[in-house]
Specification:
The protein is mainly β.
Length: about 675
């Protein structure tokens, strides 16, 4: 790659910030104690209620359940021995590709909210993750590689002169695994199944299926068209033993096609805590008085990617709120929900009539995360299409700004340092007074001054700073930022301010909702003081086998069912990790590599990595804005422009050679 191309990549590369983790929650359970919540019959959740569990909407297949059952040891906030039961069972689902013989059904099993394939169709003890199940169409030339993800790939080696056969090679991490010549003239030979031996001591395990649709031998190109791919991660398959332990679940029973795992010890649902169950699944327990117990099960996802967060599955008229739709805003400590989505009038069909789709949200009060100082009690909040917003006026839902930060974390910043608050907002400690009792803070947006204040820690009434701004969507005296200074220190070397308590809204991108606004399919807006009600003015068809946008990134997913059935749920998408965006005109696709979809594509480890600024402290998961063209100071060019030292050195060497030769 040339130096010029490297420079262009540096200029046009930018990082889109996303969350480091997302939480997908199940239904909320609320009562005075575990006995009351569980009752005599116990409670059970499956994939229709818990969006993290594996679910196939087309086949209506669930495999996993988590139950809290009535056992003698249940008491207060303690689940007794054997009272928590995780169960999963092998089921059959259709391949995504179904247009050729041999592509009917395969065995699948959810395992702690991940999709796995049993190595033996009726035995749940040996599993491998599913990498790919696709009916997308890919065209690859001879010599090209189709990246399947997780290090697996297919290469089209050659096409025969008659254009009827293609020689394919399957590799893992660049190493040969298997190859086959596939004919498209014989339907029985157009699918290639790769069977391997000694996968967790099992032989004849099908790890890859490929269907070749067409082969073309042209004057210039030799091409194979693939439609139908299925792959498991056999290299990382696992065997489950009866003495294995999975977090708090340590009593494993393998019953043929079923796994049942219980707790051998009691589990305490400590209030105001997150308690791991197993394999990234947790109980989240509210901060409540001792006579109230409130919790839900959740799955924390940290692997980079885009994930679907869905609501409960419906088969007709239904209403969702935050207790059965994990995408909606919910505050477990205050038990606050603000949003509902209702469907009425289906009458056994799949058409929602005018006014039958209703989204409603109402302002509620929640506690600040930081509550250890006067003035940090409650603030107004409202969910808006599954995002958390703050009303600019406490009792009016028509003017909103996104909440950026509500934190009780503790940050220590030296004078001259900047605390990055996210979305271009920042806080700088300018100076500390000589007595070490006051600090001068400056609040900025995109590097521009917004406000400043001298804050004293001696007088508790002056240790909070509220930034109020005017003309925010025509509103004055809007509190946009709050900060509490805990301590100030003036030392012989460092001057330091300790901050504990931060709250910030994105006032620069605040919005006003008007009665004639339209939000996707919802176009009848009614503003009723602290409540927004938005309906559909036109009929809304739940087309089978489709994803239909409702509004603002919220969708219905509708199953591929017969005409006399309907199955659907609402969902939103959440992204984990950084997403790199590179200007398409400067860098095309990698030569000789075709990747199916956008999944399973891993960026090179060292590209687009920016070292942290020495004078910037970031709270939590605050996104950092990348510099734009022209922002890089000249003095940073040393390591930031690799290769310039070599170029200059060569130029100097050539000049010396030229002078020597001329003198000679």
């Amino acid at each position: 790659m040339t130096l010029a191309v490297l420079m262009l990549l540096t200029v046009f590369a930018s990082a889109a910030s996303a969350q480091d983790a997302i939480e997908i929650r199940g239904p909320v359970f609320n009562g005075s104690n575990i006995q009351e919540i569980v009752g005599t019959d116990g409670i059970t959740i499956d994939a229709t209620q818990f969006a993290a569990f594996f679910y196939d909407i087309n086949d209506n297949v669930t495999t996993e359940t988590l139950s809290i059952i009535n056992v003698p040891g249940n008491n207060g906030n303690v689940i007794g021995e054997g009272g928590l039961v995780y169960e999963t069972q092998i089921q059959q689902v259709e391949y995504e590709f179904t247009d050729a013989a041999g592509w009917d059904n395969y065995s699948v099993i959810g395992f702690f909210a991940e999709k796995y394939i049993p190595l033996k169709p009726n035995s749940a003890d040996k599993l491998a993750k599913l990498v790919l199940d696709s009916d997308d169409r890919y065209t690859i030339r001879t010599g090209e590689t189709l990246d399947l993800g997780e290090g697996y790939a297919i290469e089209a080696k050659q096409v025969d002169v008659d254009g009827e056969k293609v020689w394919l090679e399957f590799t893992k991490d660049g190493e040969f695994v298997d190859d086959e010549i596939i004919s498209v003239t014989d339907p029985d030979r157009s699918t290639w199944e790769v069977e391997l031996d000694d996968i967790e001591d099992e032989d004849d395990v099908v790890v890859l299926k490929v269907h070749v649709n067409q082969v073309f031998q042209g004057a210039v190109d030799s091409i194979a068209q693939i439609e139908g791919l299925w792959l498991i991660d056999y290299a990382n398959a696992m065997t489950i033993e009866s003495d294995d332990e999975f977090g708090e679940l340590n009593d494993v029973s393998i019953q043929g096609d079923r796994l049942v795992i219980r707790n051998d010890d009691t589990i305490t649902l400590t209030r105001d805590s997150t308690k791991e169950i197993a394999e990234g699944m947790f109980f989240k327990v509210a901060d409540t008085p001792s006579n109230v117990l409130r919790f839900y099960v959740m799955k924390e996802i940290t692997d980079p990617g885009t994930y679907e967060v869905r609501g409960q599955v419906a088969t007709g008229d239904f209403t969702w709120d935050a207790t059965n739709f994990a995408g909606f805003f919910y505050d477990i400590d205050d038990d606050v929900t603000t949003e509902t989505l209702s469907v009425t009038g289906l009458n056994g069909g799949n058409v929602i009539p005018d006014g039958g789709l209703v989204y409603q949200t109402t302002i509620q009060q929640v506690e600040y995360e930081f509550t250890d100082a006067a003035g940090w009690d409650n603030y107004s909040v409202i969910g808006f299409f599954a995002e958390k917003y703050i009303p600019l006026k406490p009792n009016s839902a028509d003017k909103l700004a996104k909440l950026i930060l509500d934190s009780d974390d503790r940050y220590t910043i030296r004078t001259g340092e900047t605390l990055d608050l996210g979305e271009g907002y920042a806080l700088e400690a300018k100076q500390v007074d000589v007595e070490g009792e006051k600090v001068w803070l400056e609040f900025t947006k995109d590097g521009e001054f917004v406000d400043d204040e001298i804050i004293s820690v001696v007088n508790s009434s002056q240790s909070n700073w509220e930034v109020e701004l005017d003309d925010i969507q025509d509103e004055d005296d809007v509190v946009v930022f709050r900060v509490h200074v805990n301590q100030v220190f003036q030392g012989a070397v460092d001057s330091i301010a300790q901050i504990e308590g931060l709250w910030l809204i994105d006032y620069a991108n605040a919005m006003t909702i008007e009665s004639d606004d339209e939000f996707g399919e919802l176009n009848d807006v009614s503003i009723q003081g602290d409540t927004l009600v938005i309906r559909n003015d036109d009929s809304f068809t739940l087309t089978r086998d489709s994803e239909k946008e409702i509004a603002e990134g919220m969708f219905f997913k509708v199953a591929d069912t017969p005409a006399n059935e309907l199955r659907y749920y609402p969902f939103v998408e959440r992204t984990v990790g950084e997403v790199s965006e590179i200007d398409d005109e400067e860098e095309g696709p990698s030569e000789n590599v075709t990747a199916p979809g956008e999944e399973n594509v891993t960026a090179p480890e060292d590209e687009n990595v920016t070292a942290p600024d020495e004078n910037v402290t970031e709270p939590g998961e605050t996104p950092v804005e990348e510099p734009t063209v022209g922002d890089t100071p000249e003095e940073e060019g040393g390591e930031g422009a690799p290769g310039f030292g070599v170029v200059l050195g060569l130029a100097g060497l050539l000049a010396v050679v030229y002078l020597v030769r001329r003198n000679n």
